[in-house]
Amino acid sequence: MSAHWKGYWLLGALVASLSVGSAYAAGSLDTLIAKAEAARSSDPKSFQRILGQLEAQAEAADEYQKDRIAYLKAYGLIFEGRAEAGIGVAKALGEKTKDSELGLRATLLTVNAYALDRQFTEGLRQLEKAMQQLPAVHSREIRHQGLGVAAVLNQQIGQYRQALDYADRIQKDSPDGRTRCLASQVQIESRQFLGLLSSDDGQINDEIDHCIRQKEFAAANFIRIALARKWVEAGEAERAINLIERHLNEIERAKYPHLIAEAKAFLAEQALEKGDLSAAENYARGVLSQSASVTSALPLVKAYRTLYDVAERNGDIREALSAYQSYAEADKAYLNEVKARELAYQIVRQETLQKSQQISVLDQENQVLQLQRKVDQQAAQNTRLIVILLVLLVASIGYWAFKIKRVQLSLKKMAETDALTGICNRHHFTLRAERALAECARNGEQAALIMFDLDHFKNINDRFGHGTGDWALKEVAEASKGFCRRIDVLGRLGGEEFAILMYGCDLRAAARVAEDCRVRLAQIETRETGHVFAITGSFGVTSSMQSGYSLAKLLSHADKQLYRAKHLGRNRVCVHENEQESVRAAGSNVLELPQREGRTEHLGA
Question: What is the largest CA-CA distance in the chain?
Fold first, then answer.
């Protein structure tokens, strides 16, 4: 990763991306300034030539033009690698210019210069200052400059997620063509480092084509190198080598040392991997030819490592030793550089945190001093009020919790219980029966359903009144409970219709229970009502063996048998047995039923 070179080129190009055509009046000097602005990163030779012309005519310039020329001069010095001189010019410009936007650009240029001079701590301090000024800037181009400088500097110090965030902010803010190209380079390289690069090459190729249209050939080729690395990771090394070799002449024509070093270091590694020792050595030495401009950079480390591996494979011990010594020195210098960047980041981050904490502490102390007297005066009164409020709150919570619980229990009982008989209403019977059937199905147990309806119940209401009818329903429910176990479900389905779901009970046993229940209903003594009348019921019985575990189907089959019992004369039990249906009338012996062994306790509603 060519972080040092990218700072040398991309930062300067981003700082130079501001279009200044509208700021100048007509005139030859203004025209030259505009041309220099446009040529900074796309045509370095023309830029240096125009800058020389501007410096020669500086005496004839007005104050505004002199500031612009000073800015260009600072940029030119930094572009040539004379960071210290560029910093001096940019700082002087920032202090004297009355143009706030140009002053911010000079600050950003200073950030760039410090980064190039590997003074990362000071560069980050200047960047923090620039970022504080950035929100007040209305110019989109200058705003993009600041974000671009922040993106690249964070990439240089290894903070790739922050770099990607700044580049994304540029892309979302409708950048011009050149800025879009440069921001795309940061995005692609940062995503590659973070392992977030898309598997689709289409977008990467689109950005390469866009950079070429903008004549940003260095950015285009840095993106190509990123694409080549992606292909190597995907096992397409030959394709990656062909891509870089095909554009190597274009890369060398750019005369950007770090770009050349990156490309040749990549090719040297891949040639060595293929076993082409001659090509690997040539490419590695090509990297070393740029060493004057790429000190403490990863391409140098890779180049020396390649030369060491080539010499070792060739059996040249002396050359291998020499190359390894150079490799060790370059690797140490590179690692020291990385550590210096990380340390600078941590130092500035800590300084920023300390400043924030100091500001927060001062604010808090000021607030404390202002409120202390009021707090002291009201402390006793507030304490008493708080105690009273807490007592009331606890009492209120306890009272309402008790009330709510009682209401909940009452509502639950009302929702589940038939108000007249005290057994399950139809809704609650359905819920409990379906749960019981599901459990029987899971456990392989049988279940049976007894459904019965009181005979001539309307006549009881009509002859003796609804009060007597209600008494009869309650007596029937009470009598039916005696035939239910705790695991059975008894419910009033509506009117004079009742049902019992019997857990783990087969058809014959359920029929015996139904018969016993029928007999018990007929024995109910009615004299206490002041009337003498008979209470009988017609019963329908089915089981899961015949009707399955669907409650709806069980009810349907039991209801069918109930009405069959009605049609056959009432006061009898009819059983659903698939193809054969059995009827048991009072005292009849149609169906042989086993004796019920005893009563079990009813499961409450």
Answer: 133
Q: Which amino acid is at 556?
A: S
| Per-residue model confidence (pLDDT) at position 603 | 26
Tell me: pLDDT of 21 over 60: no
How far, in Å, CA of 104 to CA of 92, rounded? Answer: 12
pLDDT for 373: 79
Tell me if residue 424 falls in helix, strand or coil. strand
In contact, 9 and 256? CB cutoff 8 Å: yes
The pLDDT score that the predictor gives to residue 9 is 37
For residue 295, count other CB atoms closer than 10 A to its CB.
13
Length of the chain: 605
Sheet holding 582-585, edge to edge: 489-494, 497-503, 447-454, 537-543, 572-575, 582-585
- Which pLDDT band holds residue 511 (cuts at 50, 70, 90)? very high
Alpha-helix residue ranges (DSSP H) falling in 25-99 = 28-39, 44-56, 63-79, 83-96
Cβ neighbours for 245, distance < 8 A, ≥ 6 positions apart: 267
> What pLDDT, on the 0 to 100 scale, is given for residue 19?
39
Closest Cα to residue 108, out of 186, 93, 297, 25? 93
Q: Using an 8 Å Cβ cutoff, are 507 and 545 in contact? A: yes
| Distance separating the N- and C-terminal Cα atoms of the chain | 76
Q: For 441-469, how does the pLDDT look when each residue is reduced to its tens digit (9 = 90+)? A: 999 999 999 999 999 999 999 999 999 99
Mean per-residue pLDDT for 260-278? 89
Q: Report CA torsion sign: 511, 514, 516, 518.
A: negative
Tokens 């009273």 locate to 388
Separation between Cα atoms, residue 589 and residue 605, nearest integer Å: 34
SS3 511: helix
Interval 500-526 mean pLDDT: 96
Based on its alpha-carbon atoms, the radius of gyration of the chain, rounded to whole angstroms, reads: 47
Q: Which residues pair with 574 in a beta bridge?
A: 540, 583
Share of the chain above pLDDT 90, in %: 32
DSSP string, 173-212: T---HHHHHHHHHHHHHHHHHHT---S-HHHHHHHHHHHH
Whether 108 and 145 have beta carbons less than 8 Å apart is answered as yes
Q: What distance lies between CA 491 and its chain's CA centroid?
A: 51
HSE-up of residue 372 (Cα within 13 Å, Cβ side): 7
C-alpha distance from residue 537 to each of 117, 482, 563 (Å)? 104, 16, 11
Tell me which H or E stretch contains 303.
helix 298-314
pLDDT tens for 159-179 read: 889 889 989 999 998 899 988
Q: What is the C-alpha separation between 80 and 94, in angstroms, rounded?
A: 21
Q: CA triplet 57, 62, 64: central angle to 5 degrees?
A: 110
Are residues 303 and 295 in contact, defined by beta-carbon separation less than 8 angstroms? no
**How far, in Å, CA of 272 to CA of 136, rounded?**
52
Per-residue pLDDT, 13:
39
> Interior CA angle at 105 toward 128 and 155, to 5°?
50
